[in-house]
Design brief:
The complex is a heterodimer of chains A (428) and B (333).
Chain A lengths: L2 E12 L2 E12 L3 E5 L6 H8 L7 E6 L2 E2 L5 H7 E4 L11 H6 L14 H13 L15 H14 L4 E5 L7 H17 L3 E5 L3 H7 L2 E6 L2 E6 L1 H4 L2 H8 L2 E6 L6 E7 L11 E5 L6 H10 L2 E8 L3 H9 L3 E4 L7 H13 L2 E4 L9 H12 L4 E4 L11 H11 L3 E3 L5 H19 L1
Parallel strand pairs in A: 3-8, 3-9, 6-7, 7-8, 13-14, 13-16, 14-15, 16-17, 17-18
Antiparallel strand pairs in A: 1-2, 1-4, 4-5, 9-10, 11-12
Chain B lengths: L1 H13 L7 H13 L9 H35 L12 H15 L3 H4 L3 H21 L7 H25 L4 H10 L7 H20 L1 H7 L3 H6 L4 H23 L5 H13 L3 H25 L8 H24 L2
Helix pairs in contact in B: 1-2, 1-3, 1-14, 3-9, 3-12, 3-13, 3-14, 4-6, 4-7, 4-8, 4-12, 6-7, 6-12, 9-12, 10-14, 13-14, 13-15, 14-15
The chains are: A alpha/beta (428), B mainly alpha (333).
Chain lengths: 428, 333
């Protein structure tokens, strides 16, 4: 790989504010690079410097190894195409006229577009899926269509490098994905080098080969998405608490926001064990993790949704083979997890002879003075001929806390821990 | 369209206080300039009217109309503002101030003789251009918003001075001033024809040459730069060129409103915003429109003349409103 655009020791300041001091940065040939960073970290300024629109006060910008200043604007436009965030147009140009303007760097002074230019524009229109809109006025289009037309214009420039400034910031989710997939396609089919600024960390991670995290005018981190999107990096740069998980479909890192400052989260050392299955644990897992609790699960069959979630989040689990009854080994493992936990929650799932042992364990925990919270089971859950019902009855008699739904889960857990604490304090 | 212009010119020349048949008109012109040999069926008097009075007048109207609507079209793209016209940057008030000074104080007469009014007006226009330009220049760049503001400010400042001068003097010269401010084509005789034509020809050819870049500039300065335009250079050059041609025609014709604002819009409404077509079309249509308006100004109340600016607004506005109602919703949003 060799770099197409690189910045060497770039200093840049607006009259009122210093942006970059000795910035080094490079865009490699053939890659999709996502630039992320909080507002006013200098993302758009960096893009403009790369496109030669803002000349740095010190340092050099190189295009294919040659100083950008040695190119004329038209020459730059044949190498680098910029897709702006928004275009406000006082006059009514049609889509076809807008796309054809991408040919401007190739036209002679008094020239009109020739057959070749029309062909290139047509290809760009086909690639970006705006065919059929050619004779519409640009301003009539939806945001997503406008964005695609601007990309078509950039393609008509036949540049090898595409710089996009937040191409999806005003779009609905489906259009966001469309534009990102288009970026990917252009990269793999047309071999374009793509640089895009993104405010959406998850999309950027999903669709970029490499990420660069900009912070206060300096490159804070760069590398593969999972190297850049770490809890530590986000905490420092965005000043907020996040959990990084993996997108179960693509494997790309995914950022879950928790709270805006470090103080709002009390680090919880307590562990909650969920007796669950059939995906019934997912809802609680999220709530508990976000509140800072540690979570363990069991007994779950391998392949169950709860098992997948547990695996992604790396939670301790007591597992059983797919579609098999709970074995003695799995039961013991679950017993171990329960004994390490401070509280047990029984989720709402169907109960048959195979997993009845889960309820048995809950009762056992209760008898060992472990607090147990049970979600009232509103399912037609009992496939054990009444056995399971009996367990629920006994749990209730012996003091388990029953709650109607998940909304009260955290509240009840906190109540339990508070009660536990009070006698300790009284003793002290 | 050029043919239409030519035909229109012929009709305009033949019309007037003294009516001269169309065929006769053309024969006189062709004989005189192109060495045709139609047998003269006309009086010497009529030939003199055609050649010395009507022809220069109609050609002047065409030139002035072309220059105004061409600069209007360019300035609207340059400032990305559909309300821009040749006078928006203060050129008019500069020229007007010069003219008013020349009329009221008689200054400049010793310099320019009977060219005093147009001469001083042209100087006024040029000085205003540079004033506006230097007011709005920041660190080597000329932001269009600042330029627009500077133009408006200079405009009102000069207008205030003009009002003050007019209210301070109460003599028979007042009529001349008012007439000039309303705009008319009387001043333009063959003496001024050549220099004005020269400015206009050079200016408009250079502007046509910039048409492609003006297309890109109307998408915004940054977009234009991304698509290969040297924006600051383009802005300086087209600003200077429009100012020169506007200054040149305003100096001899006074303030003729409406043409520079409306004709470019008319062309956009009819044929779209591509400047490679818009600029020449606006020039031709502007010339045509002003020639027609001036003919009406001469003939409606003949032998008295109505200021041509009155005609342009009276006839142009309803037509434009009609077009705006019919097609405006598609083009303006």
């Amino acid at each position: 790989m060799s770099s197409t655009i690189s910045l060497e020791g770039v200093w840049f300041r607006y009259p009122e504010r210093q942006i970059f001091a000795d910035l080094n940065f490079s865009l490699e040939k053939g890659e999709i690079l996502g630039l992320i960073g909080p507002n006013s970290s200098g993302k758009t300024t960096l893009l403009k410097i790369m496109a030669g629109l803002l000349p740095p006060q010190k340092g050099r910008v190189l295009l294919n190894g040659q100083d950008l200043r040695s190119f004329s604007r038209a020459q730059v436009a044949r190498h680098i195409a910029v897709v702006p965030q928004e275009v406000d147009m006082p006059f009514s140009f049609t889509v076809a006229e807008i796309v054809l303007m991408g040919r401007a760097p190739y036209l002679k002074r008094l020239g009109w577009e020739k057959a070749h230019d029309l062909k290139v524009a047509q290809e760009a229109i086909a690639l970006t899926d705006v065919a059929g809109l050619e004779n519409r006025f640009f301003w009539e289009l939806s945001q997503g269509e406008k964005q695609r037309v601007l990309i078509a214009r950039a393609l008509a420039q036949e540049a090898q490098v595409l710089l996009l400034d937040e191409p999806t910031s005003h779009l609905d989710l489906n259009h966001q994905i469309e534009i990102n997939e288009l970026m990917q396609r252009l990269n793999s089919e047309k071999k374009l080098t793509v640089f895009h600024i993104s405010h959406d960390l998850n999309l950027a991670a999903e669709f970029s080969h490499r990420l660069v995290l900009l912070h206060q005018g300096a490159v804070y981190a760069k590398g593969r998405p999972e190297e850049v999107l770490t809890e530590e990096n986000i905490r420092r740069v965005y000043e907020m608490e996040v959990v990084i998980e993996k997108n179960p479909f693509s494997g790309a890192p995914r950022v879950l926001a928790i709270g805006s400052s470090l103080q709002s989260i009390q680090p919880e050392k307590r562990t909650i064990h969920l007796i669950c299955g059939e995906g019934s644990g997912a809802n609680s897992v999220r709530r508990l993790l976000l509140r800072g609790y540690r979570v363990s699960l069991g007994v779950i069959n391998i392949g169950d949704t709860d098992q997948k979630i547990g695996q992604i989040l790396n939670l301790p689990m007591a597992l059983e083979e797919p579609f098999s009854a709970i074995s003695a080994r799995a039961f013991q493992e679950n017993q171990r997890l329960v004994s390490q936990a401070d509280l047990v929650v029984v989720e709402r799932f169907h109960i048959g002879p195979g997993n009845l042992a889960n309820l048995q364990l809950a009762l056992e925990a209760l008898r060992k003075k472990k607090p147990v919270i049970v979600l009232e089971n509103k399912l037609n859950f009992d496939f054990t001929g009444g056995e399971a019902q009996k367990y629920y009855g006994r749990l209730q008699e012996e003091g388990a806390i029953f709650i109607p739904d998940h909304s009260r889960l955290l509240e009840e857990i906190e109540k339990v821990f508070k009660r536990e604490k009070m006698p300790e304090e009284a003793r002290a | 369209m050029s043919i239409l212009l030519l035909g229109m010119a012929g009709v305009s020349i033949s019309l007037g206080a003294v009516r001269i048949p169309l065929l006769e008109t053309w024969s006189i012109i062709l004989n005189h300039f192109f060495h045709f040999h139609f047998s003269p069926t006309w009086t010497e008097n009529n030939a003199a009217i055609i050649l010395k009075i009507r022809l220069p007048r109609v050609l002047s109207a065409i030139m002035v109309g072309a220059a105004l609507s061409l600069s209007g079209a360019v300035l609207q793209a340059l400032l990305r503002n559909p309300l821009a016209d040749p006078f928006v940057l203060g050129i008019s008030s500069g020229a007007a101030l010069g003219a008013v000074l020349a009329i009221l104080l008689g200054c400049g007469a010793f310099l320019f003789g009977h060219y005093a009014i147009p001469g001083v007006a042209f100087l006024g226009a040029l000085m205003t251009i540079f004033l506006v330009y230097f007011i709005s220049r920041v660190a080597g760049r000329v932001p269009t918003q600042t330029m627009l503001l500077a133009g408006v400010i200079v405009n009102s400042f000069f207008s205030a001075i003009i009002m003050f001068l007019i209210s301070a003097t109460s003599n028979e010269k007042l009529h001349g001033v008012t007439f000039w401010l309303m705009g008319n084509l009387e001043f333009l005789s063959f003496q001024f024809f050549r220099p004005v034509f020269f400015y206009l020809l050079i200016g408009s050819l250079l502007l046509f040459y910039l048409a492609k870049d003006l297309n890109l500039l109307s998408l915004g300065e940054e977009t234009a730069a991304e698509l290969g335009v040297e924006v600051e250079k383009l802005k300086k050059v087209s600003f200077l060129l429009t100012s020169l041609i506007t200054g040149a025609v305003v100096a001899v014709s006074g303030l003729i409103g409406f043409v520079g604002l409306i004709i470019p819009h008319l062309v956009r409404l009819l044929w779209g915003p591509d400047h490679r077509f818009l600029l020449p079309a606006a020039a031709i249509l502007g010339g045509l429109f002003l020639a027609a308006a001036d003919t009406m100004a001469r003939t409606i109340m003949a032998p008295n003349e109505i200021p041509v600016g009155v005609i342009t607004a009276l006839s142009g506005a309803p037509f434009f409103i009609y077009l705006l109602r019919k097609k405006g919703h598609v083009v303006y949003h």
